[in-house]
Amino acid sequence: MSDHRIAPVVPVAAHEPPYYAVVFTSLRTEEDTGYGATAERMGELVQHIPGFLGEDSARTPGGLSITIAYFRDLAGIEQWRQNAEHREAKEHGRAHWYERYSLHIARVEHSHGFQRADR
Amino acid sequence: MSDHRIAPVVPVAAHEPPYYAVVFTSLRTEEDTGYGATAERMGELVQHIPGFLGEDSARTPGGLSITIAYFRDLAGIEQWRQNAEHREAKEHGRAHWYERYSLHIARVEHSHGFQRADR
After folding, report:
1. Which conformational region is residue A29 in: left (phi greater than 0), alpha (psi within -120 to 50 degrees), or beta?
2. What CA–CA distances, in Å, run from B92 to A10, A113, B96?
3. What confidence tens digit (pLDDT) does each residue in A22-47 have?
4. Cα dihedral sign, A69-B70-B5-B42
5. How far is the C-alpha of A39 from the C-alpha of B61, rounded, in Å?
6. What is the pLDDT of residues A63-114, one digit of tens each?
7. What ipTM goes with this model?
8. Other CB atoms within 10 A of residue A13 CB
9. Contacts of B62 in chain A (CB under 8 A)
10. B104 close contact with A: CB closer than 8 A
11. DSSP label of B94
């Protein structure tokens, strides 16, 4: 729906551990109807979750999609998991958009970042 | 270098926790020389690390690249981190291929997978 290449997209920064990462790696079906609008809506909604730190996503054309949402604590993840609109989107996703996926919830113990100096 | 769309690419399965995820999210420079061959070589090398469970990657054209490597324990991650050829590749990456990146090392505490039944 939206073209993320319009804005400069940068990786979510390395925060001070501990924090949590929700890794969602999926292979999509060929059905795309409604996906863009729902993804955009979820991207807005999640920003209201307390302790939400940011989200990175990438999709190889014809290949894997990966989205990683970062949260300060498990309470935020639980609140997002129970959000009614999010639950409905996930159910619709399993029925229509996802061929398969893996979800990993992980506690970040170490992190660092890099940025080129020459610009 | 290789076209990953030739083979059916599926997400690394949800393993029994605990295990570890190394999340590497990057924005690349426009310099691509040698990247494909090095990425392919690293993808081969990492498979020899004890406890390596698999690797997912995705890249949005013009946008973010995300690679997540899964390991059974921190010892495997440390061994991979210290691998001489890997260190050389990372140094070359910082000098040429990466505009910026974030690295998050995280302990997976919960995971699950989904696969469509209707095929």
Report:
1. beta
2. 21, 16, 6
3. 999 999 999 999 999 999 999 999 99
4. positive
5. 18
6. 999 999 999 999 999 999 999 999 999 999 999 999 999 999 999 999 999 9
7. 0.91
8. 14
9. 5
10. yes
11. I
- Burial class (CB within 10 angstroms; exposed 0-12, middle 13-18, buried 19+) of B23: buried
Which residue, among B3, B66, B72, B91, would best test binding to A if mutated, counting the most A CBs under 10 Å from its CB? B66
C-alpha gyration radius of chain B: 15
DSSP string, A42-102: HHHHGGGSTTEEEEEEEE-TTSEEEEEEEESSHHHHHHHHH-HHHHHHHHHIIIIIEEEEE
Test the B interface: residue of A102, A109, A114 with most B CBs within 10 Å: A102
CA distance A48 to chain B (A): 23
Residues 29-48 in A contacting B (C-alpha not used; CB under 8 Å) = 29
Distance CA A63, CA A67 (A): 13
DSSP bridge partners of A112: B103
Of residues A75, A61, A62, A59, the one with CA closest to residue A24? A59
Map out the domains of chain B with their CATH numbers. Answer: 19-108 (3.30.70.100)
Phi and psi angles of residue B110, each rounded to the nearest 5 degrees, phi first: -140, 145
